[in-house]
């Protein structure tokens, strides 16, 4: 299926689709309920960055002529898989508490060791969730340092919950902690700063 259709570019992927498990749907409903009083907000998620969304950042870091050609082909890594095969996730933010929660069902194309989530895939979704937590305050942010302890392996295709918390801000430096728990909250799989 072509990813570059106009419709697809503006499609919000942070909503249920037929590949979602019952566990992910239940977590989604739980968090959508928390959004009712406005304390939590579901964050829409698109395959491509909005045009001009990071123009000053791109001007500083990238060659504009190269960017033009690339932009139409570029995809957000975590949104570049067919439905259900990669990262099925939704992020919710609570700006008052400086928190971002990400509910995630990892697809079969994220395998590392047989039957387990690839460590790089876990790093990716931690980077995106902690990055979003900093971005809620810093607007345009880059990850300078990411330290991770993998405590328990994550079974492939299971549902997990990431909790990112802003711990400290010093000027333009943001310090964020992030944990990955099993969907039932009983197992701490990963912790990161
Ligand atoms: C519209 C957009 C929509 C977006 C949707 C969401 C999509 C999300 C996608 C998900 C994407 C997720 C995000 C991604 O994946 S971002 C991609 C991965 N990250 C990068 O590529 C960043 C590469 N690094 C750099 O560009 C520079 O090194 C940065 C910018 C980070 C700092 O270089 P800069 O020249 O600017 O500043 P500085 O060197 O004077 O340092 C400044 C201060 O920082 C301190 N420091 C520096 N390094 C470290 C370190 N390693 N540990 C601890 N501290 C460190 C340093 O001591 C100093 O502190 P102080 O002495 O001032 O106190």
Structure description:
The protein has a single domain (21-45, 78-192), classed as Thiol Ester Dehydrase, Chain A, CATH 3.10.129.10. The protein is 27% helix and 25% strand. The mean pLDDT is 92. With 193 residues, it is an alpha+beta fold. The protein is globular. A seven-stranded antiparallel β-sheet has the order 1-2-3-5-6-7-4, sandwiched between helices. It binds tetradecanoyl-COA. Tetradecanoyl-COA (MYA) binds at residues 49-50, 53-54, 127-128, 131-132, 142-145, 173. Residues 115-187 form the Thioesterase domain.
SSE order and pairing:
Blueprint: H1 6-9, H2 22-34, E1 41-43, H3 55-61, H4 64-71, E2 87-94, E3 99-106, H5 119-138, E4 148-150, E5 159-170, E6 173-182, E7 188-192
Antiparallel strand pairs: 1-2, 2-3, 3-5, 4-7, 5-6, 6-7
The structure holds tetradecanoyl-COA (MYA).
In short:
Pfam families: 4HBT. The chain is of the alpha+beta class. It contains five helices and seven strands.
Keywords:
single chain, EC 3.1.2.2, binds tetradecanoyl-COA, 25% strand, 27% helix, alpha+beta, seven-stranded antiparallel beta sheet, Thiol Ester Dehydrase, Chain A, 193 residues, THEM4/THEM5_acyl-CoA_thioest, mitochondrion inner membrane, 7 strands, cell projection
């Amino acid at each position: 299926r072509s990813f570059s259709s106009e419709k697809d570019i503006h499609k919000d992927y942070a909503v249920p689709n037929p590949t979602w498990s019952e566990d992910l749907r239940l977590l989604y409903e739980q968090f959508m309920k928390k959004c009712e009083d406005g304390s939590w907000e579901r964050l829409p998620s698109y395959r491509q960055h909005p045009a001009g969304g990071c123009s000053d950042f791109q001007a500083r870091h990238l060659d504009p002529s190269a960017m033009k050609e690339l932009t139409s082909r570029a995809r957000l890594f975590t949104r570049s898989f067919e439905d259900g095969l990669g990262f099925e996730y939704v992020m919710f933010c609570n700006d008052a508490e400086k928190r971002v929660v990400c509910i995630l069902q990892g697809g079969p194309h994220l395998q590392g060791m047989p039957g387990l989530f690839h460590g790089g895939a876990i790093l990716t979704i931690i980077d995106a969730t902690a990055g979003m937590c900093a971005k809620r305050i810093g607007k345009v942010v880059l990850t300078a340092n990411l330290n991770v302890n993998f405590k328990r392996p994550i079974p492939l295709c299971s549902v997990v919950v990431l909790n990112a918390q802003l711990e400290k801000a010093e000027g333009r430096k943001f310090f964020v902690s992030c944990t990955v728990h099993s969907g039932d909250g009983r197992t701490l799989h990963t912790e990161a700063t």
